[in-house]
Amino acid sequence: MSAQRQRRQARRDERREELKQAAIEVFHEHGYHAARVSQIVKKVGVAQGTFYLYFEGKQQLFSEIISDFLEMVVTTVASWEPGAIDSREDLREELTRVGLMLTEELLRNELSTAIFFNEAMAVAPEINELIRHFYETLQAMLSDFNRILCQRGLIAPMDFTILGSMTIGMVERVILERVVYGTLKDAEPRAIVDHLIMHFLAGTIEPIGEPARAGHPEPLERSETSDNVAPTEV
C-alpha cells in the first residue's frame, strides 16, 4: 500500500472512530430510540451522508458499540490465569489486580457502561443474542476458573456455575449503582474491588452440597510438606 493510500485509510479509520465516539455521547444523552443520525454527525461536523459511508444505519453502529464493550470485558477477565496461583493470599492479590483492571476500564468507558445497562437489551433481537452469548461466555470462563481454584485447594467444592452467576451479579449491581444510579459515585475503585473480593473469599471457604456427585471436582490432596494450605481463613 502506498503512503498516500495509508494516509487515506488512516483518515477513514479516524473519521469512523469520531462518529462512534459521538454516537456514544448521543446514545447516552438521548437513549437509543430517541437518538438521531443528524445529532451524531453534528457533533463530528460532517454531512449526514458521510455517516452512511461508514455505517449502514443507527442500529449497526449501536451494535458495534455494544460489541466493543463486551469484548473489552471478556478480554480483561480472560487475562487472569488461575493455574499459577498457589495460596489464598496470591488469590487475593490476583483477584485485586484483575478486579481493578476491570473496574477502571468500566469507569474509563463510563458512557458505554451506562448505555449497556440502560439501553442494550431493548434495541433488537440480534443485540439480545449478542448479550446472551456474552453472559454464557463469561459464566463459562468463571466456572472454569473456579474449578481450577478448587482443584488447587484454594476454594471449597460447590456448584461453580452458580458461583459464577453470583459473581457476575455482584459486580454488575455495584457497577450499576456506581455508574447509572450514582448511589456509589464517591466509591473508589479499590474500595469496590476490596468489598467484592472479601465476599468472594468468605463465601468459598465452606463446601456446599455434594459437588463431587454433581460432577464437580474435589480439591487436590495437598502435600504435608507444602507451604500452601487449604483455605482456613479469609
Give a quick rundown of the structure:
The protein is mainly α.
Approximately how much beta-strand content do the residues carry? under 5%
Biggest pleated-sheet summary: none
Number of domains: 2
For the record, the CATH class of the largest domain is Mainly Alpha
Order of helices and strands: HHHHHHHHH
| CATH fold label of the largest domain | Tetracycline Repressor, domain 2
> Got a strand count?
0
Q: What percent of residues adopt helix (DSSP H or I)?
A: 55-70%
Q: What class do helices, strands and sheet pairing give?
A: mainly alpha
Q: What's the name of the CATH homologous superfamily of the largest domain?
A: Tetracycline Repressor, domain 2
Mean pLDDT over the residues: 88
Give the CATH architecture of the largest domain: Orthogonal Bundle
N-to-C span? 58 Å
What does this molecule look like?
The protein has two domains: 11-55, Arc Repressor Mutant, subunit A, CATH 1.10.10.60; 57-203, Orthogonal Bundle (Tetracycline Repressor, domain 2), CATH 1.10.357. It is 66% helix and 0% strand. It has helices at 3-30, 37-44, 48-51, 58-78, 88-108, 110-119, 125-151, 160-181, 189-202. The protein is elongated, with a radius of gyration of 22 Å. Keywords: DNA-binding. Residues 211-234 are annotated as: Disordered.
